[in-house]
Structure formats: C-alpha cells, structure tokens
Amino acid sequence: MKREFELFAAAGVPHPCCVPSKFRLDKLAASRSASAERVRVSSGSTDHMVKLDGGSFLMGTESKEGFQRDGEGPVREVTLDPFYVDAYPVTNSQFSEFVKATGYQTESERLGWSFVFQGHIPPERYSELVEATVPGANWWCKVSNVNWQRPEGPDSRIENRLHHPVVHVSWNDALEYCGWAGKRLPTEAEWEYAARGALEQKLYPWGDELTPDGRHVCNIWQGEFPISDLAEDGYDAPAPVDAFPPNGYGLYTITGNAWEWCHDWFHPTYHVTATRINPVGPPEGAAKVMKGGSYLCHKSYCNRYRVAARTSNTPDSATTNISFRCVRDI
Fold this sequence. Notes:
Elements: H1 2-10, H2 21-36, E1 49-52, E2 55-59, E3 76-80, E4 83-86, H3 92-102, H4 107-111, E5 113-117, H5 126-129, E6 130-134, E7 137-144, H6 171-181, H7 188-196, E8 223-224, E9 228-229, E10 259-265, E11 288-291, E12 311-313, E13 322-323, E14 327-329
Parallel strand pairs: 10-13
Antiparallel strand pairs: 1-4, 2-3, 4-14, 5-7, 6-7, 8-9, 10-11, 11-12
C-alpha cells in the first residue's frame, strides 16, 4: 500500500482511497477504450516469429533492486490476447531489405549525425569526430555521418554484422519498418510477458541469478563504467542476435545487447489506474518506453537489464544501443 501512495504522490494524483469513485472510473474507462481501439496487425509473415498464447501474468516488480521513480511497480496481474513476437531483434540484414525495397532514410541519416559511445571512438580521432557530448553523460558523443550503416563512426561498416541488431533507429524509424513488414511494435505489457518466458516474478528471463553457474547469458557491461569494459561476456558492442541462449519462449537477446522500443508512451504512474486487459499505455506523452537494457548497462548506475525495468527516450532519438523487435496479432 505504501508503494501505491508513493506512486500517486509522485504524479500529483490523490490515492484512490481518498478520491471519489468517478475519478477512478473515468480513468479506467478511458484506458479500456484505448485498449479496445488499439491497432491490430495480422498481415505480416510469421517466419522467425514465436506464437504466444497470451493469458494472465504478473507484471512489474517491487524488488529492492528496482527504480521506483520509473514506475516498475506495483506488481499487478495483466491479461493479454495471443500474439506473435519476433524470436530475434530486427537485424541489419532485415533492415537492409526494408531500405532497399522502400528507399527509406532513417532520422539519423536525414539529420546527418547520431550518438556514439565514447569507447568506440579512436582516441586519436576524438577531437576530429566529436562535435559535442551530452551534459551529465559525456560518454555519449555527437558524431557526424553516423547511422545504422555506420554504427560507430564514418569509418565503420555493417558488412560483417548482418546478423547483429540494427541500431541508430528511432522509434519513428521502427514504426516505418513495422508498417512495411505488416507488423507492429509490442506494447510494454506484451514485451514483458514475452521476455519473462513463462517464469513468474523473476529478475531475468532465466531466473534470479545474473550469471547462473558463473556463466554470462547476456551482453552487458563488466568492469568500471564508463572507463573500462572487460567484455567478460565476449562483447563490448552489440552482439549477434543469437549470441546467447533463448528464454523459455524461444526469444533471443531479450536482455542486454540493445534496448528495444515499445509502442507505449512512458509515464511512471499511468498503469496504476489503467486497465489490466491488453493495456496500451497513456494516450500521449513526451517519450516512448524502452525495455531490456543494453551492452552499456552496469549495476553501478543502471541495472535496467532486469525484466521489469523500464526507461524511455523521445521518438526521434537514436543511439548505438537502441534497436527493436516486432509483434503481430493472431
């Protein structure tokens, strides 16, 4: 109960026990309407997709490892319709097919720059390539001529990374790809249901131990962030999409590697008064939900590679650690 009070207080919303029922009913009715009217897509190929039966699961967490300000809790039972989900994030090879067929240019290509992690910029070329850094996170560097085909700088290429997740794609870019493929982006609830792989309330898709039996089963940061990535898991950049074992549903690299865009607008408390049946998030916002963490996540500052963890970014943003996977209705 205390957690729910804190969630409402953070949003400036009175707790339900102190609010006339009409307030709660209006919020719930609007959420149910949005759920009922959500876009359904069923024309895309189901090759390399996994069919999930849907049903009820426990979403969110109240773990002490969580970030309450992100709205990871409270734990609530959510019910979903069946759907298909990509077994892998969209790869460079797949995105290349989309671009070849449509001539599409990503937002990074149109803008002429994107964000690159400082560790991927040759020290001797840093002053030449870096135009600016992000205040408070100066490991993110603005570099010209960076995009999905040149992910770490103008001299990098994807020819030997066709089975890696496409990166430097904004939410808007991902939406365009989904439309071409006859699919859509997952809601946050669908993403979390899929990521859990039929396990209930576990920290990770495989259980509660980050490295079961001492094995690395996802691509995240080891070492001192952002100074030294020891790459003990084998990678200091995005890995191939099948580099680690799948979860219980047969989904690969759902944790770490690259963040994945979801359909929903981000809000830390909207879900507290929202429908629990096929929820779709608030009707508007400033940033879109991202799930799963990336190879840059480290327990010292951002252990958001947990299944229930969430973060957000503006729909036009793109970096070297953001990707996506698609879903399709039955």
